[in-house]
Design brief:
CATH topology of the largest domain: Endonuclease III, domain 1
Number of strands: 2
Order of helices and strands: HHHHEEHHH
Low-confidence stretches: none
Number of domains: 2
Oligomer: single chain
Largest sheet: 2 strands, antiparallel
Strand order of the largest sheet: 1-2
CATH architecture of the largest domain: Orthogonal Bundle
Structural class: mainly alpha
Length: about 130
């Protein structure tokens, strides 16, 4: 995917929020502030990343979700060459290659571990295709 297309997708620029903005306008202050383009939801650049992050939100507090994702990224994500402390979200292949013990000892995924690794294997082997429509 081209960078412009990816960014447009992530910020949902293709979506029509006119009904939402009309509703906000009708509700009055402070809702009218949202009609200036606020209220967009940021998506991940890939459906795979969104699905993994969603799985990590189940039956936990937000702090737990952030901890799981941070460990997943720092453990299995590639480092950025320009900034060695930053990592990319791991690819399906990286998650699929990881030893199962990593998901219980290093990355605190709990019961989510098997589902996440199974999904990664399925996407990496092209048995499952996750695409935004």
């Amino acid at each position: 995917m081209e960078i412009g297309t990816t960014v447009s997708h992530m910020f949902r620029f293709e979506e029509d929020f006119s009904e939402w903005y009309a509703l906000c306008q009708a509700r009055g202050h402070p809702w009218t502030r949202l009609t200036a383009g606020w209220g967009r939801l940021l998506r991940s650049p890939t459906m795979f990343e969104d699905v993994i992050k969603t799985i990590c939100t189940t039956n936990t507090r937000w702090s737990g979700t952030k901890r799981m994702i941070a460990k997943l990224v720092t453990t299995l994500g590639d480092r950025y060459a320009e900034h060695s402390t930053l990592h990319a979200f791991p690819t399906p292949e990286a998650i699929a290659r990881a030893q199962p013990a990593v998901f219980t000892t290093v990355i605190p995924l709990g019961y989510r571990a098997a589902s996440i690794q199974q999904l990664a294997v399925s996407v990496a082997t092209q048995n499952t295709f996750l695409v935004f429509q």
